[in-house]
Write a structure and sequence with these properties.
Blueprint lengths: L7 E4 L5 H12 L3 E6 L2 H12 L5 E5 L7 H13 L4 E4 L14 H29 L3 E5 L12 H20 L6 E7 L6 H8 L13 H14 L3 E4 L5 H9 L1 H7 L5 H11 L4
Parallel strand pairs: 1-2, 1-4, 2-3, 4-5, 5-6, 6-7
Length: 275
């Protein structure tokens, strides 16, 4: 989508963190933005801030762990702002722990929020986008969806699912006037899971790298405007390792721990009593 001015976007997971930055960035492009998340007071504050930027901002609270809320969310947004042109599937649950430390309820809830809800929202909006001849869907995945780290099994599985979902959608709608993109951030300084890790004294290193909210939001806008299939934003030269992983999966298993990521997440799991 080349033209964003005056269009409508829905950003999920926007009551804080990266989602708030994404909403602001799209508003600066002249888009009217609906923000969704679980904390209504925080959403209202974000919507008010967007209004001060000269666009329409709407807050719609929704807990995407309850999959029955997806249709009501879209209905509320479109009643307030009209048809949704851009969907940014940003909502996600992050957790670090030994695989056996998770309850069945934690596993299914993470799958619902991280993978099934984006699937349902995209399924609901795609027909209208095709009918109108415009639209774009962005999935916020993770580097964990490209190379699954230890102590992150459910998170890595759901983010890898988004990567595969995006690939299939692009293949099916290759010549359609609707685009699909996946953005895979690494550790984001001052945001999300990594920010909480840093608060507890656990840091990335030069090999693993870190990025910023500004770089990630810029990647999202670039993905929409240029219909980019996949953008990686990690702050480190990750593509050579990904290529190696495709050519020699067994080798990458032995190389990856030397980067320090396994030990980093092990320490986090231990500190949280989930090792």
């Amino acid at each position: 989508m080349k033209t964003l001015q005056g269009r409508t976007a829905l950003v999920t997971g926007a009551s804080g963190g990266l989602g708030t930055h994404l909403a602001r960035r799209l508003a600066h492009e002249g888009m009217n933005v609906a923000v969704s998340g679980r904390r209504e007071d925080a959403l209202q504050a974000v919507a008010a801030e967007l209004g001060e930027l000269g666009v329409k901002g709407v807050a719609v609270a929704a807990d995407l762990s309850d999959l029955s809320t997806t249709d009501a969310l879209i209905d509320s947004v479109e009643a307030a702002l009209g048809p949704i042109d851009v969907l940014v599937n940003n909502a996600g649950v992050e957790s670090v722990g030994a695989f056996t430390s998770y309850t069945r309820e934690e596993l299914t809830s993470m799958v619902n929020v991280n993978l099934t809800a984006p699937l349902l929202l995209t399924h609901r909006l795609t027909p209208g986008m095709l009918e109108r001849g415009r639209g774009h869907v962005v999935f916020i995945a993770s580097m964990a969806g490209k190379v699954g780290p230890a102590f992150n099994e459910p998170y890595a599985a759901t983010k890898a699912g988004l990567v595969g979902l995006n690939q299939s959608l692009r293949a099916e709608y290759l010549d359609a006037p609707v685009g699909f993109s996946v953005v895979c951030p690494g550790f984001i300084a001052g945001d999300g899971m990594y920010a909480r890790m840093v608060e507890d004294g656990h840091h990335s290193n030069r090999m693993m790298g870190e990025t910023t909210t500004e770089k990630v939001t810029e990647a999202v806008v670039r993905a929409i405007r240029e219909d980019r299939a996949e953008l990686l934003e990690s702050g480190s030269p990750i593509r050579p390792m990904l290529a190696l992983g495709q050519l020699a999966p067994g080798l990458i298993e032995r190389v990856a721990p030397k980067f320090g990521v396994t030990e980093l997440f092990r320490k986090v799991a231990v500190a949280r009593g989930r090792a």
